[in-house]
Specification:
alpha+beta, five-stranded mixed β-sheet, single chain, about 625 residues, Beta-Lactamase, 22 helices
């Protein structure tokens, strides 16, 4: 009836009210037997954060209750127009009304107790109607036991109720069912024990599954809270450090005190002889010198590069945007140290001198080198993947074409009858699966060729009406199956394009197929085209479920589904829109999406004026 999946939607996560301080114990938290938090305050936090999802799950149950009401047709087949039929009909129709009660009257967070009580009442009411059916007979005990298993599974895995209430209602329902089944003539002792064991297993599995799922969801909630608190602490620490740095700069009194107390290596070097005139403690420790030895040292001895004079001269040139020079030095024990060197030309004791500052960036240099190598490897791997898929086009398509061709030959019995009719059905399934797999491989190969730069357009003059009609003809069987109308509105006289017919047709097929897939039965999908000063705009318009503005960039990413759960209701690989976008861009155009959730989506393909044959002719004439 509903999914037991993620904690909350992204919008709900942003609204979580995290306490000022997490309780002791961090993420490792004590839980009740039901999987709920033992801390009432923390449980209230979790309930408030996920309340929107709870109400949405209750809404998702309503279609299932409609199916429950539609079962009255089976009741009529079994009981006819008898009093028991009308009693069951009234009960099933009452369930359709009662299931709205939690959402209509108790959807506010403050009414959560009444909400859970009303959900429990709905569960008890629906199962009571089922028990009336069991008491009336008309079906076997095994059929009723199977129906009870379905109801119990729906209670545990679909109904947004607390486990304690779910368990109580399920046990009472099981007891009532067992009491009624015991009166059936065909219920032997062995059958009774088997049925009782089955119901016990369903209850046990349901309880354990809900407990594990509840605890996992709450663990995720705690992790989010912990991460937010950690981010706040880091922000405070950064602010404190910045304030400390400003305080240090404000209390510095003189150049000499700054020089001697500086934590970074600093040295004063003669501009002619490169003799070290003075060095602070950090510089002495870096090069293994005593203060008395510093004045007799040539600074060039520490540089691996011989062009020291030019390096210091360049670093000392006064420029606002000059970056430090990166040089290689030899440490006190002979180790290689990479450092940023900055120099300023000053006067020291009346003589010109270089004030040299060093910053050890050896670790950063190694990290940058490692990152550079990793990036090069990733780029090479991605390029190899794209080139491999693009070059494997023949090897992938050839066996599939053989499978499709031979299965079609078996299906049509081109070389004589195959005997058993089931072989024809198997051949048809193989053919359909092969065609589907070939189309999928074609999409992947086309996308890989585009990424690898191997996709070449074969442009020719073609009428837009012909491309649109061909695309609509291909998708029409699917549209008719879903009772969806495909309408077109194209300019007159017909527009002639200079384009790759197959690529442009693939764009329209992908867009119209998407529009049909996300539209409801009886809706209309419209294909429009208009010419303006900028070129040609082709629009595919539907009245479907729409896309949230934040999800539009995700929809244009390859292999990405907006509904990424295993239980999503729409099939697909996430290649249609990205491939259409790339093909439009290869024509010099663009693909944009305008959508409002619940109202529909418009996908615009804009082609430049150069693609219009008449426009190109006028330009050449001028």
């Amino acid at each position: 009836m509903g999914r037991q999946g993620g904690l909350v939607e992204k919008s709900a996560v942003a609204q979580i009210s995290v306490p000022a301080k997490l309780p002791a114990g961090g993420v490792e938290r004590a839980y009740l037997w039901s999987g709920e938090f033992a801390d009432p305050d923390l449980e209230t936090h979790f309930r408030n954060a996920s309340w929107g999802e709870t109400v949405d799950r209750m809404r998702s149950i309503q279609p299932c209750v409609l199916l429950f009401a539609a079962w009255s047709l089976v009741d009529y087949y079994i009981f006819g127009l008898s009093p028991i039929f009308f009693a069951l009909l009234a009960g099933r129709l009452g369930a359709v009304v009662i299931v709205r009660m939690p959402i209509v009257f108790f959807a506010a967070r403050e009414s959560y107790k009444a909400f859970y009580a009303s959900v429990s009442f709905v569960q008890a009411y629906i199962f009571s109607v089922f028990l009336v059916l069991v008491g009336a007979g008309g079906m076997t005990a095994a059929d009723h036991a199977l129906g009870a298993v379905i109801f119990l599974a729906a209670f545990y895995f679909g109904t947004p109720n607390r486990l304690v209430y779910n368990l109580l209602i399920s046990l009472l329902s099981t007891a009532g069912l067992v009491a009624l089944l015991a009166t059936y003539p065909e219920m032997t002792l062995q059958s009774f024990i088997t049925t009782l064991s089955l119901l016990a297993i369903v209850n046990g599995v349901g309880v354990q599954s809900v407990r594990v799922a509840s605890r996992l969801r709450r663990n995720t909630f705690l992790t989010l809270m912990h991460q937010r608190e950690t981010n706040e602490q880091l922000t405070k620490e950064i602010a404190v450090r910045q304030e400390a740095q400003r305080a240090v700069r404000a209390t510095e009194e003189s150049f000499q005190s700054i020089f001697l107390a500086a934590p970074l290596p600093l040295a004063l070097v003669d501009t002619v002889t490169f003799r070290v005139m003075q060095a602070n403690k950090a510089a002495l420790d870096l090069f293994g010198l005593r203060e008395s030895e510093a004045s007799s040292v040539d600074a060039r001895d520490f540089f691996v590069d011989d062009v020291v004079r030019d390096q210091l001269s360049k670093a000392a040139v006064p420029q606002k945007s000059r970056k430090p020079l990166e040089v290689c030095l030899q440490g006190a024990h002979g180790e290689i140290i990479w450092a940023h060197i900055s120099a300023a030309l000053i006067r020291f004791h009346g003589l010109p001198a270089y004030l040299v500052g060093l910053q050890d960036v050896t670790a950063r240099h190694k990290e940058a080198e490692a990152l550079r190598e990793a990036r090069d490897q990733a780029t090479a791997a991605n390029r190899s993947k794209s080139e491999f898929l693009a070059n494997m086009s023949h090897e992938l398509r050839t066996p599939l074409n053989a499978i499709i061709g031979f299965s079609e030959a078996l299906e049509r019995e081109l070389f004589g009858p195959v005997g058993n009719p089931r072989y024809r059905e198997y051949a048809e399934d193989i053919h359909d699966s092969g065609v589907h797999l070939l189309n999928l491989i074609n999409d992947i190969l086309d996308l890989s060729k585009i990424e690898a730069g191997h996709f070449n357009l074969h442009e020719e003059e073609v009428e837009l009406d012909h491309i649109v009609a061909s695309a609509c003809r291909i998708v029409r069987p699917r549209a008719q199956q879903a009772s969806i109308r495909v309408e077109t509105s194209l300019p007159t006289p017909p527009v002639v394009l200079l384009a790759d017919e197959r690529a442009l047709k693939q764009v329209l097929i992908n867009l119209i197929s998407n529009a049909i897939k996300f539209s409801s039965d009886g809706d209309a999908v419209r294909v429009e085209a208009n010419i303006d000063a900028d070129g040609l705009r082709i629009a595919v318009i539907d009245q479907g479920i729409g896309i949230a503005a934040d999800d539009i960039p995700k929809a244009l990413e390859p292999f990405t589904q907006i509904d990424g759960t295993l239980s999503r209701s729409h099939e697909g690989t996430g290649l249609g829109l990205p491939l259409a976008k790339h093909l439009a861009e290869l024509h010099g155009g663009s693909l944009t999406i305008e959508s409002t959730p619940g109202q529909g989506t418009t996908v615009n393909v804009d082609l430049p004026a150069d693609c219009l044959v008449a426009r190109r002719a006028r330009i050449h004439a001028v």
